[in-house]
Amino acid sequence: METVLQIKDLSKVFHQGKNEFYGVDHISFELMKNQILGIVGESGSGKSTVAKLITRLIDASSGTIILEGQDITALKGSRLREVYSKIQMVFQTPMSSFDPRRTLGDGIGESLRNKKIPKSQISKRVEELLLQCGLTAEFAQRYPHEVSGGECQRAAIARALANDPEILILDEATSALDVTVQKQILDLLQELQKKRGLSYLFICHNLALVQEFCDEIIVMYDGKIVESGKTDEVIGHPQAEYTKRLIEAIF
């Protein structure tokens, strides 16, 4: 399988006064093309920090991030913006990820406007993306407060797809939704993955969802990877004591 993302010995040190601690502590893993890789762990384990490092929302203290063979760890300016077209993120609370003063269509089309694409083409593209994500074209005229949480998350996924990315990072993207809507969003993501050849990094605290959705899993504790492997193998036969406690607490 083709590797699309490599994380090598990646660390992030945070400072609190005179003290310092590792938010992410020398982790390494790979994401393959068409793979769904889950990252699980309790709050504070470092899951979301990993996502912020990969998307360059924060800078790494050490280590390397390689996207499709290119080292992106220290990219700046226009070269960094090119990376964002290949990696997109879908957040936990879709309402807050849209500007409440602008329509969903405006939000979905923002990256296309930044590329100076003609307005007529953007409108057509936004409609296509909405339809691909299970919404009608008229949702382009609605505001975030006028739609449900599930509809807003579908629009957020449409926005993430606007640049035709290779990778979607889903940071607790279903945790704010009720169980029925969670299933609908996961079904949508699986359908989109098959059609587009996407790779997913699925950050989640819900092991049941991860077992249903992910090919492989990484278990994090205190900034470190304590266990990784095929999802059913890790959950069915955990080796690390922390993984055992995590599974016992949920199942």
Structure description:
There is one protein chain. By secondary structure, this protein is an alpha/beta fold. Helices cover 39% and strands 27% of the residues. It is built from ten helices and ten strands. The protein has helices at 47-54, 77-84, 94-97, 104-114, 119-132, 149-161, 179-196, 207-213, 231-236, 241-250; strands spanning 3-16, 19-32, 36-40, 62-67, 70-71, 87-90, 167-171, 199-203, 216-221, 224-230. The strands form two sheets. A six-stranded mixed beta sheet has the order 6-7-8-3-9-10, with helices on both faces. Strand 4 (62-67) and strand 5 form a beta hairpin. Helix 4 packs across helix 5 (119-132), helix 4 (104-114) packs parallel to helix 6 and helix 5 packs across helix 6. The longest helix is centred in the last third of the chain and has 18 residues, at 179-196. It is globular. The protein starts with a strand and ends with a helix. The mean pLDDT is 92.
Keyword list:
four-stranded antiparallel beta sheet; six-stranded mixed beta sheet; globular; alpha/beta; 27% strand; 251 residues
TL;DR of this structure?
By secondary structure, the chain is an alpha/beta fold.
